[in-house]
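tool_call predict_complex ligand=shikimate-3-phosphate
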Amino acid sequence: MTPIRVKSAKNFSGQIDLPLDKSIAQRAFILGLPTNNGLFGEDITSTKKAVSESNSDQAKKDLFLGNSGTGIRLLTGFLSGIGKSFTLSGDKSLNSRPMARIADPLNLMGANISLTNGKAPIEINPARLKDEFSYVMPVASAQLKSSLLLAALNARTKIEILEPTETRNHTELMLLHLEAGLKIEKTDKGNLISLDGAKGYKEKPIFVPGDFSSASFFIALGLLAPDSKLFIPNVGLNSTRIAFLQLLKEMEAQIEIKNKRIKNRELMADLVVQSSKINLKSVPNYLVPNLIDEIPILSVIAAFSDGKLKLEGIGELRVKESNRLEAIQEILSTLGVEYYQENDSLEITGAGKHFTFDGGSFNSFGDHRIAMCAAISAVRSTGEVLIDDIESIVTSFPNFFSNLERLGFKLINL
Ligand code: S3P
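tool_result ok
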């Protein structure tokens, strides 16, 4: 456990340096592609290491994916039909997350995968996948979609996936860039994605932009801090990832998007964020997968805004790095903000643009995004903010605290 005390700076301006996009980098490393240099979170490092170990000649292949759900789910798919044995596992949090969502369809596809009570450790036994497979996604998960696409690619299977609710499309954009046999058709039932694995792919370098989900914490900081201006260069702005940004702009946030450019089919740009008065509104259900990782920090923004934020269909938050639906409620209680949670929905009543709280102790639940939410909320605290454990932040944003320190925040290790 690494506890910390955070004291916010006031009236700051500055530039934020982001780590590389976790989703894009992990996909690039699984496909063995070279990338630009940049700072990586531990999730990327553990996926990169597991990929290189999976290629070694050793007989026993125990692969450790740390905290990375993307790493374990995508790599399980990629390795499931190459006729070899592997065991994939992770840390306590990763080993408690549901894996049947990938193992069941992969087994239907012909793989021979067994789980430990529906979870990791995941055992992959040698198998040959079917020549053709089609699947309708029962849960809106880009990790599930990507696991199946990568399985088909590596085992030369023809696959067709119907995605009723759109999820992030980095795998599809990367495969299109690599000239794999991939097609996407928009139908009235959702996106129909087909891939002919036998067509293979060309190995090309991938430019990985800054991680939008990491940027979201500093977007929040820039909006919530009085008289501030933050410049966040090189942010990945894939359209299936930026509902958080689009919704905030609709809620009157002052965020400028500059210097848009496209690299390997991925949009990126520079952002300028300024203090704003946010007028909350309801989030349509179909956007939830597009902003799933930003819901905790959106909830913190909501606490210090006007109106009501209504979120429905957010049950997936329960099976992230922690039970984030519970964690968000604890944050809101510490902030002293009114909320109502029922089934898979959450309604937050903003305490207003001028609201401050007295400070207090936050439980991070060992979850990087929850710990970062607590640290950002310090900007509206009149007292001290204590966070019980910040160790997990390195999984996605190793330079999170150095960015805060450059803005003048004081961090005291306890
Ligand atoms: C990811 C997809 C999302 C997201 C995760 C990264 C990806 O998970 O929460 O942080 O890289 O595909 P699900 O697909 O399970 O919703």
